[in-house]
């Protein structure tokens, strides 16, 4: 551990011996299973939470948790956000005040004035001001963070920033877009006094590299084992802490680790669910799946994949119901080839190409041509999916060589474009459908060698359409075009079943756009 972190945290460590505010049940799942005879567990919960709570979760190396060096997937983002706060935060209903206690905008929604909280401190004791917010956005313009909220189509959405008062800031935007408030509000603020002299944030490893003003401070990080330890920031400005510390530890089998009491939260597979349902020791939360397995196709490296007929053949020849039956044990749903999931009733378009399993159609599209591709996978589940796809694809003349690497290498290959076909399980399927622009639009970093001018134009247009009925029509048309062109073969989504022991901790909550309670900052803070 860096010595500077120890200096910052020396006085904070006393929090581990102080009883923290007990936290009431705040879980608001899509569906919940709690036995009626749980009064004993509830009483036990009240007693146990009078003592400092340490939450332990399954670990894994997701990088240094600052805005520039964490990995781009959910667990990396989560760890960073526990250290760094933003002007707004998310709860189960939408955006809520956070570092900004209030805000206002002009009628055109191109100017926002944020009034910031008083008495906010950085982890090193330096006061937080509007100068930090102004600096953050200016720095991000030159040095985009991993989760880049202030660029659209490769350009900054910000026209001007003006500090009006020590705790008031005005941000003028280049133009109206539907997601502007969310982008500004959820950008993580960094301390000016640390980063103003850092020329290369990707290589910065000096004092203050993980100093934020969020509720937790990192005291330990071991990349070799994927272990992290966070402790409560005693001078945190916001809600009281519900837990004293969070530890991510290495586990080889998450289910076994949960049953042995080594970790406190488990996303359990469907075939093991009956082990926990009806048992008063456990709470089961069932959530919509916001992730999907998907087959990425590198059209830059493999010219044959630029042919829409080849991509459609890969979709028709994928037996997605078989994947659900054999990989997800029946507990999954076929993903929409238009990307937006069918349970998003507001935005989902059912009138798109569905690609029901059809080997004859796939052969017809290939026109007698045969192909050979390498498919990169990153774990055992993806390997099983790849093996099933390989058997189906062979029947239509597409031969697959499966290459298995670790997930970090696989993720790096996707980012760098070093693959032909690639299997990955990832999210980004909830919230405002502007995510279609990020995934399929002209500045997408996920689709190597792919571009569709019609999709690009429509993705840009929907972003600035204020009429919700007109925008709905645009989003429906985008899904139709995306499904027809198949830039990604969307496979299946596995259902989400979180299990935990309420006697140990019963504070897990969800946000309006996430089904992962451990990724939600509010899960670790006491309810007001």
Automatic annotation (TrEMBL):
<keyword id="KW-0732">Signal</keyword>
<dbReference type="Pfam" id="PF00496">
    <property type="entry name" value="SBP_bac_5"/>
</dbReference>
<dbReference type="GO" id="GO:0042884">
    <property type="term" value="P:microcin transport"/>
</dbReference>
<feature type="compositionally biased region" description="Low complexity">
    <location>
        <begin position="29"/>
        <end position="47"/>
    </location>
</feature>
<dbReference type="GO" id="GO:0015833">
    <property type="term" value="P:peptide transport"/>
</dbReference>
<feature type="region of interest" description="Disordered">
    <location>
        <begin position="26"/>
        <end position="47"/>
    </location>
</feature>
<dbReference type="GO" id="GO:1904680">
    <property type="term" value="F:peptide transmembrane transporter activity"/>
</dbReference>
<dbReference type="InterPro" id="IPR000914">
    <property type="entry name" value="SBP_5_dom"/>
</dbReference>
<dbReference type="GO" id="GO:0043190">
    <property type="term" value="C:ATP-binding cassette (ABC) transporter complex"/>
</dbReference>
<feature type="domain" description="Solute-binding protein family 5">
    <location>
        <begin position="95"/>
        <end position="441"/>
    </location>
</feature>
<feature type="signal peptide">
    <location>
        <begin position="1"/>
        <end position="22"/>
    </location>
</feature>
<protein>
    <submittedName>
        <fullName>Peptide/nickel transport system substrate-binding protein</fullName>
    </submittedName>
</protein>
<dbReference type="InterPro" id="IPR030678">
    <property type="entry name" value="Peptide/Ni-bd"/>
</dbReference>
<dbReference type="InterPro" id="IPR039424">
    <property type="entry name" value="SBP_5"/>
</dbReference>
<dbReference type="GO" id="GO:0030288">
    <property type="term" value="C:outer membrane-bounded periplasmic space"/>
</dbReference>
